[in-house]
Every structure is written in C-alpha cells, then in structure tokens.
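Re: weekly structure request thread

Next one in the queue (372 aa):
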Amino acid sequence: MTMSIPVLKIGKHEPRYPLIQGGMGAIVSGTNLAGHVAACGGVGTIASVGLSVNSPLFKQIGYFEANRIVMREAARQAKKIAEENRNPMIGNSKPVIAVNCMVALTDYEIQVRSSCEGGADIIISGAGLPLRLPEYTKDFPDVALLPIVSSAKAAGLVARRWEKHYSRIPDGFVVVTPHASGGHCGVSAIEQVYAPEFALDVIVPEVIDYVAEELKSDIPVVAAGGIWDRSDTDRVFRLGAKGVQMGTRFVCTEECDANIRYKQAFIDATENDIVVINSSVGLPARVIRSPFVSAYLEGRVESKPCFANCLSHCRYMKDRSTFCIAMALVEACRGNWESGLFFCGANVVKAAKMETVERIMRDLFPEGCDGR
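Done, posted below.
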C-alpha cells in the first residue's frame, strides 16, 4: 500500500517533495542537475569536491582560490537554473538548493563559507563529523545544517558538540547505509559494509529515537542508500524518516552534469561490475569495475599527478602508494572509461535508460504532498 508523503522541513526550508538529490563528485551533481531537481520540487544538491576543475579559473589562479570563487557562484547559478526552469509540479513552493561539503577537504571551511555567500539554503556535510560547521556558518543564520551520519552514536557526537559550543542542534540528519550507498560507504572497514547493524531498518529508527528522546526534538531524519523507487521511499517513510536522499538514479538524466560516457557506464553496469574497494583515502568505496579499478585491484595502477592537496588525509600525498582519487574522479566525470573511477550505488544495475529529472519526480511523487 502506498504511503502518504511526509512534509520535509529543514530549518526554514521546505521543498515541495521530501527528496534530497545526493551530492556526487567530482562534477557529477553540479549546478545543472541541482537546479533542475530544485525546479521540480526536490532539494537540488551541488557537490563541492572538484567543482572548480572545469573552470578556466583553475589554471589561471590555482585550485583553492578557484574553488572559493566557483563555489560562491555555483549556488547562485543553480538557483537561476531552478527559477528559469520552474516546473508547475513545484506549486507555490520555493526552490531549495543545498551544497554538499566534505569535512575531509583541506579547504572545507572556505567551501562552506563560499557556498553560504552564494546563497545556498542548506549545507549537507559528511566524510567526517562536521563538528565545527556552525562556526563556519554563524554569519548565515538562515542556512540549514544537515550532517551525514551512519549511526545514532555519530549523531550524538555531533549534536552534543554543537549544543555545548554553539548552543544549537542540527536541522536534521541524513542517515546513510553502507549496504547500498554510492562512493565512500561511511564506515571504516570493508567488513563493516554489509554488517546488519548498519541496515537502514536499524539505523533510521535508532537515530529517530535519539532525536526524540535525547534531543527532545522533531528535526527530520532523511534516509539514504539504496533509494530508487516508490517502494523504497515508502519503506523508509514507514520507519519514520521524513525524507529520502537519492543519488545514483539521477546520474542517468539529461540534466546530470557528467559526460554522456559516464552515464552510459551506469546504464551498461551489471551485478558483476559492482565492487567495493579500499580507496586511496583508506576507506571502503562502491565503484564500477572500470579498467582503472581492475588494474588497481591487481596492484598495477599508475596514477596521474595530483593537481592539489585537496584532502586532509590522503595516502597518495603521503607516500604515493596508491592513486590520486580526485584526479581519477575527474577523469570519470569527463567520460574517460580507461582511467576513471566511477563511484556508484548498488542500485546502478537498475539504470536501464536515460530519464529526465521531471520524470523521476513524477514517478516517485505522482500525488504531491498531503494538504499542500
């Protein structure tokens, strides 16, 4: 039986539909995808990592300074796209734009501040615990803050730190399962990826209970990892989630910022092509078995040179023992099958054809939100 759709309110922001498009780097979920998702009533999300690489500024003034400028303009551009392509299905709702900023980035603080300066409505933050995020956004009180966690313990660490040092709590949590999520899985070891305690059916209720019992709050919990169709959204709504985050399905859309060859790799992928590797940052990541990944697993990969010291902890920068993950992700986004690293979710095998953002949103939420 189809569930009624909950209302997703994140701080002062309320998208028409309870869906956040996942942040996918490098340059997979850029301004175009985010803008069109927001235009159709979801939260459109720009992934900050590597976003400046395709900008002329990258070669003119360097990676980090280019990031500062590009990130500031990205949120503005996504909002412009959303308004210019505003879909009737959004009703009277205001388009909502988020930026996903990874804690592990060396210019994390700059990216957060620049995104806020550009008008981002929400900062979504994972790849580490965003313990100082409120400090970086203190001049932007209307910007909602949404940490990504994989357990109630992690949610508690963030919330207690924020209450103690900043007298506030998060505006919600994105709860991700390593069982099906794309890219880095949110756990520290491969043997944890399929551990029963990290299933959405377990961690979503645990975080919801923590929010209600410890925080005495009704901030939303958003479920992520393995969300593809209405049956998946209904399942997590029954658990009490107020929204879903979906990444992989949006890759094979006309609006996605990635190269068409990147999208074709998703369409062509089979069960045997999906593998979890230990990435160059030492964490499990779900990827498509491209020639680059096959060579890496056989111990013979050669990395292209690192273009910036973009990560605070990187094995490649430390001892050159592995590969530059940023360069490999950029190569993938540009459509280079031979030398690219293609992050994907477990549901990539369901990607059989190109879609549009509007079609996905209408497929997921044909009836709209109750009472709106």
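The chain has a mean pLDDT of 92. The CA atoms of residues 134 and 166 lie 7 Å apart.
Next request, please.
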